[in-house]
Task: inverse folding
């Protein structure tokens, strides 16, 4: 299923996708309070992951804890439609990288990056083709605070579990993590929900205020 995800899926919002997943699943799937160097752009694609943990000098090994090594371990040979997902190791105010480190996404033509950590160099990142969503911009490097430890393992971003192969959809409102087995169903339901909302708009435009005071409406 994951390998056949239609990466052109779009035309819906993170809100309708979140509502759709709420109809078929019980776990939290949306990540809030994200920003982007290019907030008008949508990030979508299949997740690969790198896990970060708080830095420990006694176990740090520059070769083992190399972002470059783990990047190429995580990213497949054909990276089209791939979103790199990085957790913050529990430090959402710390940088997990910036324009230099993440030039690899530009070079390999990934769809983009999602993290609940901060990023540096927004001015540089906004020039890249990949789309970036994070908790905010910073100027201080985070190499003394967090270190990458493993590729393509479960990570937690903004309180949401992300597995390799999940589908990531992020816009200016939120990021939504869709389990690979639910992608088609989620997008179909989201489209139906947006049609329902369009019907509500039409009905609201035509409603009688006096009648509404008596019987109320279906939306909450």
Result:
């Amino acid at each position: 299923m994951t390998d056949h995800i239609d990466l052109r899926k779009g035309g819906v919002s993170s809100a309708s996708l979140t509502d759709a997943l709420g109809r078929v699943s019980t776990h939290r799937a949306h990540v809030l309070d994200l920003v982007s160097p290019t907030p008008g752009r949508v990030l979508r694609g299949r997740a690969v992951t790198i896990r970060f943990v708080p830095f420990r000098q006694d176990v740090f090994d520059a070769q083992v804890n190399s972002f470059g090594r783990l990047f190429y371990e995580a990213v497949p040979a054909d990276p089209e439609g791939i979103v790199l997902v990085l957790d913050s190791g529990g430090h959402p105010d710390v940088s997990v990288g910036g324009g230099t480190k993440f030039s690899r996404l530009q070079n390999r033509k990934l769809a983009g990056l999602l993290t609940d950590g901060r990023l540096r160099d927004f001015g540089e990142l906004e020039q890249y083709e990949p789309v970036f969503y994070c908790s905010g911009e910073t100027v201080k490097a985070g190499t003394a605070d967090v270190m990458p430890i493993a590729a393509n393992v479960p990570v937690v971003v903004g309180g949401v579990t992300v597995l390799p192969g999940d589908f990531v959809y992020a816009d200016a409102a939120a990021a939504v993590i869709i389990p690979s087995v639910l992608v088609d169903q989620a997008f179909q339901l989201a489209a139906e929900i947006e049609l329902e909302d369009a019907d509500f708009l039409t009905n609201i435009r035509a409603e009688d205020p006096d009648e509404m005071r008596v019987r109320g409406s279906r939306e909450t």
In short: Residues 183-206 form the longest helix (24 residues).
